[in-house]
Amino acid sequence: MSDKTLTISHLSAGYKNREIIHGLSLPPLEAGTITAVIGPNGAGKTTLLRALGGLLPGRGEVLYGGRNLLLCKPAERAHLVTYMPQTLPQGVVLTVIEAVITALRAAPGNDVETEAALHAQADAALEHLGIGQLALSGIDELSGGQRQLVSLAQSIVRLPKILLLDEPTSALDPHHQLSVMGAVRDHVRSREAIAIIVLHDLNLALQWADNAMLLKDGILMAAGRPNEAVTANSLADAYGVAARVEHCSQGRPHILFDGLL
Ligand SMILES: Nc1ncnc2c1ncn2[C@@H]1O[C@H](COP(=O)(O)OP(=O)(O)OP(=O)(O)O)[C@@H](O)[C@H]1O
Ligand SMILES: [Mg+2]
């Protein structure tokens, strides 16, 4: 198995006195791929990402490069993994470019030596996401979607091997949804990295993800290629909805929701 594969085995995680993720095991996630985490509200998606990012204690194994990430020192993990939270912090008084430079500076082992080089790298990350024009705006003056894009820039600029994104497109218009998913795909392919992305938009998951895992009550209900994991039956079981997977005129699968079950 490749050194750049991520393997999650028997992972359990949760909060004080309350286990949320129960012994989750998945087929290995390959370098260069995007995995969508889907499932109803309260299923444990954020809890899973936080455990993978080292923000919550977890038991089991999360193997990458011969190491169990659950046992790594924080600095070692921070070298490999970045995590974009579902809820963005409030009250940040930095400008956009300062926030991205701060993220870059905090990256352990970053070898960018001069202020000018840091600035250039941060600028490039903003341009890549199509928000270069926001560089000098204050974070607190941004719209919800703009803040989400800046938060993503902070994650990607550190060139992580494992990119954990919790609903990164939930506030974005269609143009920015596509540019974000494209930027994530570019990142994982060019850096042989792995992205694990929580998405409620199942059509985005079908279109962009290489794998999908469907969680409910902290248990894996389905995993595999998105069109294997996302079916009328699995959506009925997980969400209690009547859904159809139709194919559009270009042959791509598309989900339609008909009602509640
Ligand atoms: N800090 C916490 N302390 C205790 N329980 C928590 C905490 N955060 C979340 N939970 C519980 O863990 C369960 C899973 O929550 P989680 O945030 O992982 O769900 P989610 O799948 O991300 O949902 P959503 O789609 O609404 O974001 C929920 O029952 C929630 O009440
Ligand atoms: Mg969540």
Summary keywords:
261 residues; alpha/beta; Rossmann fold; 9 helices
What does this structure look like?
The chain has a domain of 153 residues: Rossmann fold (3-Layer(aba) Sandwich), CATH 3.40.50.300. It has a six-stranded mixed sheet, sandwiched between helices. A four-stranded antiparallel sheet has the order 2-1-4-5, with helices on one face. Strands 11-12 form a two-stranded antiparallel ribbon. The chain is 34% helix and 28% strand. A hairpin with a 2-residue loop joins strand 4 and strand 5. The protein is an alpha/beta fold and 261 residues long. The model has no long low-confidence stretch (mean pLDDT 95). The protein is built from nine helices and twelve strands. The longest helix has 18 residues. The protein is globular and about 55 Å long. Magnesium ion binds next to helix 1.
The residue ranges in which pLDDT falls below 50 over 5 or more consecutive positions are none
Order of helices and strands: EEEHEEHEHHHEHEHEEHHEE
What is the molecular shape? Answer: globular
Q: Report Rg.
A: 18 Å
Summarize model confidence as the mean pLDDT: 95
Structure annotation, total helices? 9
CATH architecture of the domain at 6-87 and 160-230: 3-Layer(aba) Sandwich
> Within the CATH hierarchy, at the fold level, what is the topology of the domain at 6-87 and 160-230?
Rossmann fold
Spatial strand arrangement across the major sheet: 6-7-8-3-9-10
CATH superfamily of the domain at 6-87 and 160-230: P-loop containing nucleotide triphosphate hydrolases
Biggest β-sheet strands, sense, barrel: 6 strands, mixed
What percent of residues adopt helix (DSSP H or I)?
25-40%
